[in-house]
Amino acid sequence: MRLALLGCGTVGGEVLRLLHEQSADLAARIGAPLEIAGIAVRRIGRDRGDLPVDPALFTTDPLALIKRDDVDVVVEVVGGIEPARSWLVEALRAGKSVVTANKALLAEDGGALHDAAAEGGGDLYYEASVAGAIPLLRPLRESLHGDRITRVTGIVNGTTNFILSAMDATGAGFAEALEEATELGYAEADPTADVEGFDAAAKAAILASLAFHTRVGAADVYRAGITEVTAADVASAKAMGCTIKLLCIAARAVDPAGRETVSVRVHPAMIPLTHPLASVGDAFNAVFVEADAAGQLMFYGRGAGGAPTASAVLGDVVAVSRNRLAGVRAASESAYADLPVRPMGEALTRYHISLDVADRPGVLEAVAGVFARHAVSIATVRQGPAGGGSAGQGEDADLVIVTHVAPDAALAATVRELRGLDIVRSVASVLRVEGGL
Ligand code: NDP
Ligand code: HSE
Fold first, then answer.
1. Taking the CB of residue 36, how many other CB atoms lie within 10 A of it?
2. Whether 299 contacts 286, CB under 8 Å
3. From the CA of 101, how far away is ligand 1's center (Å)?
4. Which of 67, 96, 103, 203 is catalytic?
5. What pLDDT, on a 0 to 100 scale, did the predictor assign at position 314?
6. Residues near 120 by Cβ (< 8 Å), separated by ≥ 6?
7. Residue to mutate (ligand 1; options 42, 113, 198; most atoms within 8 A of CB)
8. Which homologous superfamily is 2-132+306-326 in?
9. Is 96 assigned a catalytic role?
10. Average pLDDT per 10 consecutive residues for the chain, totaling 437 residues
């Protein structure tokens, strides 16, 4: 079985190391030896440490490598939309099998890859694209195919989970925790994709597509990152027996017209400490799946890093290689349900809202009136002196309101109106609440 490896960075280097260390076992499991036909990189002269490969295998021409007749399987660990999409479409149309970790491409245009795989007759596997080492996509795409998945709730970004866990443990603010994540090598030099939720949104799209047999793309996912989560939010969550996590939530939902839809969103949320995802700390990932017959399932492990991700890549390489030797291919994409994606405004959520208000008669009534006008029911109200101090009547007060479940649009309209009241000095923070309290 001859492999073209596209990319030899954090993940690609580990793929090569594991291929070398385990070559005899992998050959036995597949029924044929795995050989590297070539390795495409951007900079041929880059120092790659002591990688156990022949330097003559490196090339800067991925397309020529893919087109070679002696290549059976293309492993793509470069990332990004183009030129990766063109390479993989070319490989798949030519009947090669493809293994990729490229969540951004799968979420942007997975359909193009699936269509090309169907045309060429090879396999398209991408276990490493979501939650790194955790076997998650194969269970969704195979093991749970006899069941009806209703909801997938996950922590699928290690960098943001590290930052939020550090804020929770030490009381640090976002900037300080991000600095620590960068120093320890969790956050990249440009952390935008992680902290703004783009990485998690891509993974949410992939999970929703598999769970609900529907093509869901990154553009269908509501996304909010963690940059505005403050130390005060974390403290307030703690006071309520909660913690804050960046959640990816994909769920079946019935729209007001009675049609079944899917709702897919990524945003920070308060969850109670009793929720199974609350104890997922550090840079770990975990995904909680709910299905009609199976009930609740939890997948947990390392969601990033060279070796954990390479483990998932190699698992796919073994699977597609076995299929090729047996002259079969895995079941193709399952998108028959084609459910509409529900707009975020219709998603049912709860809000935790912190307000800085004037402390005088009638303020609570005015604030409650805004909620009532938007048909949002208040669950709890907590008031204290502004800044947690000991100010008396006539000064400002901190008001923390937690709502019952309501459509997101109604909650957003409530917050907009609150911001316009002169008795509301500021809306200090707005966070969604998930998982029951
Ligand atoms: P790196 O940046 O470490 O490596 C990228 C590799 O691609 C490098 O070897 C680079 O070459 C090569 N490359 C870049 N552009 C080109 C090009 N135009 N032509 C040929 N080669 C090119 O990325 P990672 O290993 O971290 O990530 C790879 C993929 O895996 C991405 O899709 C990422 O999202 C995904 N992933 C990564 C995880 C992680 O923890 N790192 C976890 C899960 C998924 P050169 O070495 O010469 O610079
Ligand atoms: N940047 C990603 C994370 C890498 O922090 O989880 C894994 O996809």
1. 17
2. yes
3. 9
4. 203
5. 98
6. 92, 93, 94, 95, 96
7. 42
8. NAD(P)-binding Rossmann-like Domain (3.40.50.720)
9. no
10. 97 97 98 98 93 95 98 97 98 98 98 97 98 97 97 97 97 96 88 97 98 98 97 91 97 92 98 96 97 98 95 98 97 95 94 93 96 97 76 77 96 97 93 85
Asked: is 346-433 a CATH 3.30.70.260 domain? The reply is yes
**Please, which contacts does 366-369 make with residues 24 or more away whose CB atoms are closer than 8 Å?**
366/421, 366/423, 367/399, 367/401, 367/418, 367/421, 367/423, 367/424
Residues contacting 307, CB < 8 A, separation 6+: 14, 18
What pLDDT score was predicted for residue 417? 97
For residue 281, which amino acid is it? G
Give 293-358 as a DSSP string. Answer: TTEEEEEEEE--SHHHHHHHHHHHHHHHHHHHHHT--------TT-PPBPPGGG-EEEEEEEEEEE
pLDDT confidence of residue 185? 82
Given this model, what pLDDT does residue 118 score? 96
pLDDT at 159: 96
**Measured in angstroms, how far is the CA atom of residue 149 from the centroid of ligand 2?**
25
Helix H or strand E encompassing 177: helix 174-183
**CATH T-level assignment (fold) for domain 143-302:** Dihydrodipicolinate Reductase; domain 2 (3.30.360)
Q: Which of 377, 364, 366 is nearest to 410 (CA)?
A: 377
What residues does each domain of the chain span? 2-132+306-326, 143-302, 346-433
The answer to whether the CB of 243 falls within 8 A of the CB of 214 is: no
Ligand nearest to the CA of 39: 1
